[in-house]
Amino acid sequence: MIEIQTDKLSFFLHAGNVTYAMEVNAQGDLTHLYWGPRLAAHDLSHLGRVRGRAFSPNPHGCDDQYTLDSLPQEYPVYGTSDFRSPAVEVHQPRDGSRIVELKYAGHRVLPGKPKLEGLPATLAPEAGDAESLAITLRDAKTGFEVELLYTVFAAHPVITRSARLVNGGSDPLQLRRALSCSVDFIPEYARYSFLHLSGAWTQERNLFTAPLRPGMQSVESRRGASSHQHNPFVALTELGTSEEHGRVYGMNLVYSGNFLGAAEVDIDGQPRLQIGINPFDFGWLLNPGEAFQTPEAVLVFSAEGLGGMSRALHRFYRRHLLSARWVDRPRPIVINNWEATYFNFTTDKLCAIAEQAAKVGVEMLVVDDGWFGHRTDDKSSLGDWTPDLSRLPGGLEELGRRVTAQGLKLGLWFEPEMISPDSDLFRQHPDWRLHVPGRPGTLGRAQHVLDFSRPEVREEIFRQMAAILRSAPITFVKWDMNRHMTEIGSASLPPERQMETAHRYMLGVYDFLERFTREFPEILIEGCSGGGGRFDPAMLYYTPQIWTSDNSDAISRLKIQYGTSLLYPFSTLSAHVSHVPNSAVGRVTPFTTRGHVALTGAFGYELDLTECTPEELDEIRLQVAAYKTHAQLLLEGDLYRLRSPFDSNESAWMVVSPDRREALVTYVLVLSDCNTANRNLPLRGLDPARRYRLSGTERIYSGESLLYGGVELPIPDRDFRSHQWHLVAVE
Ligand code: GLA
Question: Global pTM?
Answer without folding.
Answer: 0.98
